[in-house]
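DM from R.C. (forwarded with permission)

"hey, sorry to bug you on a friday — could you get me a structure for this? deadline for the figure draft is monday and I only need the backbone to look sensible"
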Amino acid sequence: MNSDYVRLPKELVEGEKGEKLWEYWQQKLAGELPVLNLPTDRPRSPLQTDNGAAYPFKLSEKLTRQLKALAKQEEVTL
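My reply, with the result:
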């Protein structure tokens, strides 16, 4: 069963159909990417600056174990 999930995508991207899909997505994604108009708490700068920030912090071992257990239970990654 699981091999079917692997084989299908492989068959899809190989050969003539895969080439057509590749060309389609190359054309579809070519050029400038549009700006996402997401709600913000302040006006957006007209120039993208890539200014970001990081806030280093440490979690206790106990909290780390609890978070890992919760992530496993909910089938998500941290």
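R.C.: lifesaver. DSSP finds three helices and no strands in the chain.
me: no worries. The chain has a mean pLDDT of 85.
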